[in-house]
């Protein structure tokens, strides 16, 4: 039996690499805005002239194919900074950022970011750390999608969801967000039917279960074995 009460796994945004002083410097430069659900912070192809810090809410980063299929690459939440990791070269966004819950965001203009980097060398170092986390997260996501097939990609995605939204009780981890099979298929580039079959196999092996429509990870070790988990830290192994 799965216990009714869980202890929440502590979550950290991707800005955890900034010192308190440097994070306060970022806060001072931000312009606050409320963004309704269903709107977009930016579209693929827009110029990347600003970053967005999520104070409240959730945002997903997606990539669309020529056929119109959507691939969900990241799910950002409070404490995360969103945007192209190289904002100084007039590049264009490679992804689309869609708001999936009404969000309060802080907007950081490129010119303000450049001033902080020029004036404070310790801020520049922290920003480089943030960029490094961003690139490493991208690398591990593509490793999951390309190296160990769809079952490996699904298991890795479940582990990432557990690290991001998990509530732990003993050996079980409840993913405390309702994630549909369509969402999972968009996260790993598979069909919904394939996800249904793979989840059914994992349930038969007693690796996962459902509780009130939400996924419970019962055998984390099995999922790690299937996806050849490299035991990355939680700031990297997240959705």
Automatic annotation (TrEMBL):
Residue span(s) of domain HTH crp-type: 148-221
Keyword Acetylation: no
Xref: PROSITE patterns: CNMP_BINDING_3, HTH_CRP_2
Pfam family, one: cNMP_binding
MF-aspect GO terms: DNA binding; DNA-binding transcription factor activity
Keyword DNA-binding among UniProt keywords: yes
Residue intervals of the Cyclic nucleotide-binding domain: 18-117
Keyword annotations from UniProtKB, A to Z: Activator, DNA-binding, Transcription, Transcription regulation
GO CC annotations on file: cytosol
Official protein name in the record: Anaerobic regulatory protein
């Amino acid at each position: 039996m799965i216990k009714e009460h869980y202890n929440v796994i502590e979550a950290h945004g991707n800005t955890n690499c900034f010192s308190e002083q440097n994070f306060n410097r970022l806060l001072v430069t931000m312009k606050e805005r409320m963004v309704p659900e269903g709107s977009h912070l930016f579209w693929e192809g827009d110029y990347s002239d600003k970053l967005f810090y999520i104070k409240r809410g959730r945002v997903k980063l997606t990539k669309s194919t020529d056929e119109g299929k959507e691939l969900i690459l990241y799910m950002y939440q409070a404490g995360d900074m969103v945007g192209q990791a190289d904002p100084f070269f007039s590049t264009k966004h490679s992804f689309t950022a869609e708001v999936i819950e009404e969000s309060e965001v802080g907007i950081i203009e490129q010119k303000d970011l450049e001033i902080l980097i020029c004036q404070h060398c310790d801020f520049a170092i922290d920003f480089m750390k943030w960029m490094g986390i961003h690139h490493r997260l991208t690398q591990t996501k593509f490793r999951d999608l390309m190296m160990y097939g769809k079952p490996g990609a699904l298991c890795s995605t479940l582990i990432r969801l557990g690290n991001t939204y998990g509530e732990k009780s003993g050996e079980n981890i409840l993913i405390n967000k309702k994630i549909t099979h369509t969402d999972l298929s968009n996260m790993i580039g598979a069909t919904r039917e394939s996800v249904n079959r793979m989840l059914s196999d994992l349930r038969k092996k007693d690796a996962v279960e459902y509780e009130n429509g939400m996924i419970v990870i019962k055998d984390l070790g099995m999922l790690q074995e299937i996806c050849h988990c490299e035991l990355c830290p939680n700031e990297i192994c997240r959705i």
